[in-house]
Putative NBD/HSP70 family sugar kinase (Rarobacter faecitabidus), 299 residues
Amino acid sequence: MMRVGIDIGGTKTQAVALADSGEIAASVTLPTMRGEDAVLATTTSSVVALAATAGRELGEFSSIGIGIPGHVDRVGGRVRNAVNLGVRSLELGPALRERFGIPVEIDNDVTAAAAGAAHLMSLSGTVAFLNLGTGLAAGIVVDGVAWRGQAGAAGEIGHLPVDPHGLECPCGQRGCLETIASGAGLRRAWPAGGAHPGRGLVRAMESGDADARRAFEGLVSGAAGCVRILALSIDPQTIVIGGGLSRLGEPLRQALGATLREWSGTSPFIADLKLPERVQFLPENTPAAAVGAALVSRT
Ligand SMILES: [Zn+2]
C-alpha cells in the first residue's frame, strides 16, 4: 500500500505517493486553479495522475493527506479562507473521501512541511520549519509528531507584532513580523520588484539598488528575529528555513548567519543559544509539504 500526500500551493499542486519504506515512489505536479471547484478538481486529478505515474491502481492507495494554507478544520476536513487559492470554504476531506473511499486528512501546509522536512532531512527531536513564503509562519514537529497547539495556532509567529510603529497587517494588528519577513512584506518594502520581488532582489541589490538592499536587510533581520523567537519559545534542535524566499539562497544564508553571529557577539545570553548552528535551509525542490502531508495523515 502507499500513502498519498498533496501540497496545494498558490501556484502548483504537488502530489507524492509514499511507499511503506518512506521512499517517494511517484510524484506529480499540476498548476493550481483558483476557486473551490477548481481546487477540488485539481486535487482529484492529481491523485488519478499519481496512480497512472506510479503504475498502480487507485485501490493501492491507503490514505490521502493534504497540506493547504488557510484555516483548517482537521476534524471536519474543511478549509476556510485560503485567500491565495480563492477558497472561502471547501469541504475537501469529505469530498475526496467520497470519491476515493479512503481516509483523508487535511492539515496546515506549514505543519505538513515541518513533518516532511524532518523526515527527508533525517532530523530528530524537535524541529521547527520556518516558512518564508508569501506569508510567514512556523510548523513544529516533536519526534516526528506534529505539534499544533489546542487550536492550531502554535507557530503562527508571523503575527507577533515587533514594531508598534510598523505597517498595518491584514490580521488587524500593527508591525507584525509578517509585514517585514515575507513575500507580502517584501512587495511593500520594495514595490519596484513587482509581484514576485524575491526573483530580482539579489540582482537589483548587487547592481546598487539602495531600496532593494534596504528591503533585503529588513527581510534578513525579520528572519533572524524569527529564529531567535523559535529558539526562545520552543527551543528546537533544528530550525529549517523553507518557503519561496528561501530561494534567495546563498546571499540570504550568509546574511542571516552574519546577523545571528552579530547578536551573539553582543549578548552572552544569545551566544549560549548557538543560533547559527541550529539553522538549516531546506534543499531546493524538496517536496517537504507533500511528503509531510502523507506522513501526518497517520498521526
Ligand atoms: Zn499580523
Summary: The mean pLDDT is 95. The chain has two domains: 2-114, 122-281.
